[in-house]
Write a structure and sequence with these properties.
five-stranded antiparallel β-sheet; 449 residues
Length: 449
């Protein structure tokens, strides 16, 4: 998993299982409740709460679903109807910095799709020796389709909120994020540690996403970065993260609050309260020769105080605590995982280490990896002397004009994944099972799935 964003599987709860569904400490869910769950690859399934309410049964998988987002899986969410009601869905585990190849790890990289008459570009993530190669293009056409065709937007994504009404202006459809709860590594969590306005998330199977990471005319393959909850340009408050980063599809994206950052390591701006920024892309302004990074905002807690802004679930007097290995706030934290940091783990099959909550599994393309923890650059140290890797590459290369920009510092406070340091070219045994030494990020040489 590594750090998780919300984008790889947009799931829907088949029967809403509310947080706080029972006050007994041994009750994990409401007996007989049904939730959607993440199987593997592109497959979604369903699971039922046991008759005694102590656990969820194994995920029963179907044959359809949506594939993962940036180098892993992003959490989908489902909300119950009505203001501030929390439905919970099960999503085994999410993706993020689980793996990388030459570019930034676990992120969807790209430049901006064209807005009217603006010089735009993208950054590829396929460079070698730590260099992300890419190109700038110029587009004089109207902006792309980060905003769904024909949609009217509230334009409030990322705004602090406590109720839905605070998020609704023109369209009247945006929601406050405290409406939604998801299950990640078998823990029911809030994706945002500080409640913010978001575009309403899909609540029915087959609805796809809530923004468009492609443009039928200018960017049919979804190679550029698109924006949402407003025009498809950087003036909008949201950034559209494709559900399938490898092959973005029309309408298949999740609109996150947008954050921006410089290349000098200073903190990102744009994320409210205890939320933090995760890497998406870099953009070179050819007029000023200035590079700006763009990302998405979500929770990244490391201690219980980071969850102080999360309201108690409806009808539940419980408070939220931090589940630090995944960086999300929950009322039912797991104090001891079945597997330890560094142990081999698997995201393969119907029942695996992620769906069962054995650990936060950083897995690569084979869905095999090692147990790890979420972190933030410059934040609390990773366990076991590991390093926090945000996935920011050591070099950005823009083909037009042969502009190349070197990076020497990770963005302070940016979300990353803990990884064991290694020596490039050293013995394979220095890295955990299912990983190899990789020296393409600013964090230095470390082991990646």
């Amino acid at each position: 998993m590594a750090f998780s964003s919300l984008a790889s599987v947009v799931a829907v709860s088949l029967g809403i299982a509310y947080l706080g569904c029972g006050s007994r400490s041994d009750q994990a869910c409401a007996a007989g409740a049904t939730e959607q769950c993440f199987c593997s690859g592109t497959i979604l399934g369903a699971q039922v709460c046991a008759n005694d309410g102590t656990h969820w049964e194994a995920c029963v998988c179907g044959t359809s679903g949506m594939s993962g987002a940036p180098a892993g899986n992003v959490a989908g969410m489902s909300g119950a109807t009505g203001a501030n009601s929390s439905g919970t869905i099960d999503l085994g585990g999410l993706g993020g910095n689980g793996s990388r190849s030459g570019g930034s790890a676990g992120t969807s990289t790209g430049g901006f799709s064209g807005s009217a008459g603006t010089s735009t570009g993208r950054l590829s993530a396929s460079g070698s020796a730590g260099t992300s190669t890419g190109r700038l293009t110029t587009s004089g056409s109207a902006g792309g389709s980060g905003t769904m065709p024909g949609a009217v937007d509230d334009g409030t994504t990322g705004k602090l909120c406590t109720t839905d009404r605070e998020c609704q202006t023109v369209a009247g459809t945006n929601r406050c994020s405290n409406d939604y709860t998801v299950r990640i590594t078998n823990v029911p969590v809030k994706i945002w540690a500080t409640s913010v306005c978001i575009k309403a998330l899909p609540t029915a199977a087959g609805q796809g996403g809530n923004c468009d990471p492609t443009d039928a005319v200018n960017d049919p393959l979804g190679q550029f970065t698109h924006f949402c909850d407003g025009p498809d340009d950087p003036s909008s408050p949201g950034i559209c993260v494709a559900l399938d980063a490898a092959a973005p599809q029309p309408g298949q994206g999740i609109c996150y609050p947008k954050c921006t950052f410089k290349t000098d390591g200073t903190p990102a701006t744009g994320c409210a309260g205890h939320n933090a920024c995760g890497l998406v892309s870099y953009f070179l302004d050819p007029q000023t020769n200035t590079v700006t990074g763009y990302g998405f905002c979500q929770g990244a807690c490391s201690q219980d105080s980071d969850c102080a802004d999360v309201p108690a679930p409806p009808g539940d007097a419980g408070t939220y605590h931090c589940q630090p290995d995944i960086g999300y706030c929950t009322t039912t934290p797991i104090t001891k995982r079945a597997k330890n940091i560094g142990d081999a783990c698997s995201h393969v099959g119907v029942v695996n280490d992620v769906t069962q909550g054995a650990c936060n599994c950083a897995s690569g393309t084979t869905n095999l990896g090692f147990c790890t923890s979420v972190c933030t650059a410059g934040g609390p140290p990773c366990p076991n002397g590991w390093v926090c890797d945000t996935g920011q590459p050591v070099s950005l290369s823009f083909a037009m004009g042969a502009t190349q920009v070197g990076l020497s510092k990770q963005t302070k406070g940016m979300i990353g994944t803990c990884a064991p340091p290694c020596v490039a070219g050293g013995p394979a045994a220095q890295c955990p099972t299912n990983s190899t030494c990789n020296a393409t990020s600013v964090a230095g040489a470390d082991c990646q799935p």
